[in-house]
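Quick one: Transcriptional regulator, AbiEi antitoxin, Type IV TA system from Geoalkalibacter ferrihydriticus, structure tokens please.
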Amino acid sequence: MANQKNNEQSIIELCLASLHALPGCRFEFSPAAAGSDHAGHLELSGPWGACRYQAQVVTRLTPLAAQLAIHQAQATRDFPLLLLADFVSERLAGQLRSHGIAYLDTVGNASLHEGGLLVEVSGRKRKARPPRTSRGFQPSGLRLIHLLLRKPEALNWNYRRLAKEAGLALGAVGPVLKELEERGFSVDDAGGKRRLRNRLDLFRRWEIGYLERLRPKLLVEHCRPAADIGLGALTDLIRRQNLQGQIQIGGELGAALVLEGVKPQQAVLHLNGDPLAIMLRLRLVPDPDGEVILLKALGTRSDGERLALADPLLLHAELMGIGSTREELAEQLFERYLSRHFQSPTLGGSAERSK
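--- reply ---
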């Protein structure tokens, strides 16, 4: 198994090496403390002045990873964000520059605009394939990480229980847990119990992996409601058909159940039951452009006779996957139902319905 920690350190070193080409530039990189949600701070100085960046390593800069970085950069930071990436394509470079995000990559592409510093290097081609994605962020590992983010106490369960709850093979558990330990996400506390550390960073990495790798494997069908049924009527129809225990409601429709003033344009239904039977009972018609997306559920959730919502992790990920039009909605959801849980022992339960 590739050691992701070594990959990230290699990316940092190669990105910083390109700074030697800047005339009169002096730099110092200070690694962040263990458990931080960033890689460290980079101080640059020269005839033009001095500046300081907060550095974030991205081993594989995809369009979604760039979008999430732009979203994160809008959060309050003491210093401007600097992405250190294996490779930044021309298209993604333009996207980052348009949002004022600085970057360096391992082949020498760069964009630095801070104070009197102005550096623009583009057009350099990738010299080698990017570091391989670690096992923890392949589909089976993402299932387990989702469980651990929801229930951090599960880190102390036995392998058999973890495999059963996460829905993966028993042999896949050990390598994923080992990787989480190597990357500093799993540590021993004073009492000898395992606990998650830096959960916010782990969540951000999981969210990208979920949208890019796991979600496509969970996809069942794109559908649209029958002509005489609107999207908003789905919740009542789920109740009338007694399907509460077989469906978790997510996407914009799920967000509309917990946030005020949301007019959903799409829905994600996470299914525990037979997809065909559920489609028939909800009068859903297969349509590649349909606004109702059916996914296999990650685990089971049931609120008895009440509607079951997808957990806040999935709600946020699905909203971010829609794109920039729903980023503000995702931020509201994060602030109300997620932010406090990254400092608390558990992420159990679901968001409470506002209506």
